[in-house]
Amino acid sequence: MEFGKAMKLVIIKAARADIWEINEYLFEFGEKPLNKFRESFEKFCSQVSDMPYRFIQYEQNPKYRKAVIAFGYLVFYQVDSAGSMVKIYRVLHGRRNMEPLLE
After folding, report:
1. pTM for this one?
2. Strand ranges inside the chain, DSSP E
3. What confidence tens digit (pLDDT) does each residue in 35-51 have?
C-alpha cells in the first residue's frame, strides 16, 4: 500500500441495505437528523479511505474494525491492503446484538 494514496471504498450489499433502512428511519424525524447522519457517514468514508487503520478493531470479532458515527451507529469494515481497498460490511446501531449480524 502506498502512503498517502486513498484506498478504494466498497460498500457491500448488506451495508447498503443498512444505510437505506437508517435513512428511511431518520426521514421520519425530518431533514436535520437525516443530513447529520449522511454527513457523518461521508466524513467516515473520507477518513477511512485515507487512514484505514485509524479506527479500532472490534473486540468481539477482530476480523472487523469499527467506527462510531452519528446517533450511535457503528460502521464495521475490513481493510484489504493487498487490494488497496476498504470494504464496509455493516452499519448498525450500537444497541443491537451485533454477533448474529456480523458473519
Report:
1. 0.90
2. 8-11, 65-68, 73-80, 85-93
3. 999 999 999 999 999 99
